[in-house]
Amino acid sequence: MMKGFVESDYQLIKKYGRIVGYFEGSTPVILTTDFQLIKNVLIKDFNYFINRRVIESLALKPADKFLTNLKDEEWKNARTIVTTAFSSGKIKLMSKHIADCSEALVNLLDNIPDEERKMDMNRFKYLNILKQKKF
To answer: Under 8 Å CB-to-CB from 68, ≥6 apart: which residues?
Structure first.
């Protein structure tokens, strides 16, 4: 049975631990649930990790312009612009609004009868991990 990349990644972490390395064809991939390493890669050392895994279903317009899908100079330019919008002070100002929106989304999902749900909620396993870490 074929699995999606989220389920495959989850199984690799479950089997081998918090940091896993493997190849997708000839491309090396590092997969981790180490939040300090993730923070370093995405924040502190972001300039060393500019090209990330491309998920083919997100490589179509308009998702091909998402920050996580950009490459090389295009990514560097966008990251420079976005960095000012997400300073710690601005995030602190947005946190109440984000929490309110998240609560509204949870309430909305809770009120959808099971037989009307068309989305496979197993795709959101990683959200539970993030929720437990109180991001």
So the answer is: 52, 58
